[in-house]
Amino acid sequence: MDYSIRIGGEAGQGIQTVGDTLAKVFSRSGYHVFTHQDYESRVRGGHNFYQVRFSDNPVTASRDKIDILIAFDTISIELYEKELSENGRIAYDSSSLKTGYTGPYFFDVPFYDLALKHGGSKIMANTVAMGAVMGMLGLEADILSALLQEAFESKGEEVVAANVTSLTAGLVFARQNCSGCSFSMAPLSEPKLLITGTEAIGFGAIASGCRFYAAYPMTPSTGIMNYIAAKEEEYGVLVEQAEDEISAINMALGASFAGVRAMTGTSGGGFALMVEGLSLSGMTETPVVIALGQRPGPATGLPTRTEQGDLQFALYTAHGEFPRVVFAPGTPKQAFHLTNKAFDLAEKYQIPAIVIFDQYLADSCWTFEGLDLDGLIYNDYRLRGEALRALNTYKRHEVTDDGISPFGVPGDSRHLVVTDSDEHDEEGHIIEDAATRVLMVEKRFKKKLPLVHAEMAPPMFHGHKDPDIVMAGWGSTYGPIKEAVDALSGEYSIGMLHFSEIFPFPSTDRFDYIGLLSKAKTTICVENNAQGQFARLMRAETGFSFSGHINRYDGRPFTVESLAGDIRGRVGRL
């Protein structure tokens, strides 16, 4: 069982609400779920869609084929009719669209009339549509009814009752009239965790002890701020919406210097404003975690679409030389754990850590059996209380064998805790002499970097143990590559490498991935950008060049079928 439902319509028609709710129904029913959205940068009008894929087996990407299309506008039918599966159905309301369609796969459902008749308002049309989906699939309405109860209980019993009645009307109508619906559903099982990429990053931050988050709202990072703000009181986190991104990173650095774990988040345009603060973190050795959400640029670009165009920016931006770490999760589970690792390494080595993701990962929903909370790392590397007061002397930037200096909390000791954004001596006071400059550069950069490098995990491998073809990707390309490799495993000896710990570039000590690539007949790098930024990084760090590239830069993600087709095409030409 593997079905995809696409809900299409204009902004303001509740497309996301329908998609989110259906995803929750399927995850609570025990199915594996993957969702993604495509929406324009406008509050009303235009055309958007929300796609929900659910299966009795794990799913990690969207498919091209649609089994049920809920069309709230005529554009949805014009655009997606050709993508319908063999037994697929298009549910639409002819009276609302003011046109009728003929054909065996069209299913005319009076969404608005049923909403008015049974719910008392046309605003219930979306609830009728969700009920119709339940009826078309042959599912019961109890889980959806419970979700509606949760969603509307604050608005009173009348609103809850109207929605449940509308839901039932849609379900009954579909059961009685969709005679051609032949969907076969797997048995229900235990509910699964449903989580988006931004929720996972926010959860990872809270679980890592983050107590201050400052940001200026910018798609696609805003979801992190919203998630943490919703947990603010419960976990004692202070969330500050700054006036701009310059203020946001400086607030985070101030909070970090004062003794708490701090984080900020933005997109490429906002990160451009943060770069001076990034260098400040490097010079003062003040840890900070930055969530960098990618979207197509330059400038405002396509603000609600997806791309992997900021990798080089994350690696090399800011002035001066200092170590940093860059993580690029491919799933929400990775996002959770890599956010935790970002906090740990930032605090341990007193450096900035960047978690880079994109719009696709930010908004997509995944199901998991759970998250491994036992694997979380939390070590307080700061000097506090008696540990700080017991020191005879305290030097914030003391030159040590490993380059890591004592990091005291201001106001918690008789010692002066001070630093400077100018080059400074061990105590943190401004200097101009060459000898001290050399000592500080070697302390901050040359001594720390090998230690940070040793912390980086090698890429994940999946597929044939001795593949002729190796696909490689980073970040959000994980899901499409994995499913494409699985789909092609009957045709080719094929495997994949997925990189999520990007910089410092992982060594081959624990896994000789360069040896694997060198033995393969064909190696292809898959990226959502035009230049092949990861392929360039691989060549610069290891000397290895891929034999082929698949790049997509139209603001849309890869799907399983489209990527599998691209791989066949590249293999045939190489």
Kindly describe this structure.
By secondary structure, this protein is of the alpha/beta class. It folds into four domains: 2-177, Pyruvate-ferredoxin Oxidoreductase, domain 3 (3-Layer(aba) Sandwich), CATH 3.40.920; 195-375, Rossmann fold; 385-454, no CATH class; 460-573, Rossmann fold. Strands 6-5-4-1-3-2-14-7 form an eight-stranded mixed beta sheet, with helices on both faces. α18 crosses α21 (560-573).
Lay out the secondary structure.
Blueprint lengths: L1 E10 L3 H14 L3 E7 L6 E11 L10 E6 L2 H7 L3 E9 L1 H4 L8 E3 L2 H9 L5 H13 L4 H11 L4 H21 L15 E4 H11 L2 E6 L6 H9 L1 H4 L2 E4 L3 H14 L2 E7 H17 L3 E7 L16 H6 L8 E3 L4 H18 L2 E7 H5 L1 E4 L16 H5 L44 H21 L5 E4 L5 E6 L3 H11 L5 E6 L1 E3 L9 H7 L2 E6 L5 H10 L5 E4 L8 H14 L1
Parallel strand pairs: 1-4, 4-5, 5-6, 8-9, 8-10, 10-11, 11-13, 12-13, 16-17, 16-19, 19-20
Antiparallel strand pairs: 1-3, 2-3, 2-14, 7-14, 12-18, 15-17
Helix pairs in contact: 1-5, 4-5, 4-7, 5-7, 6-7, 8-9, 8-14, 11-12, 18-21
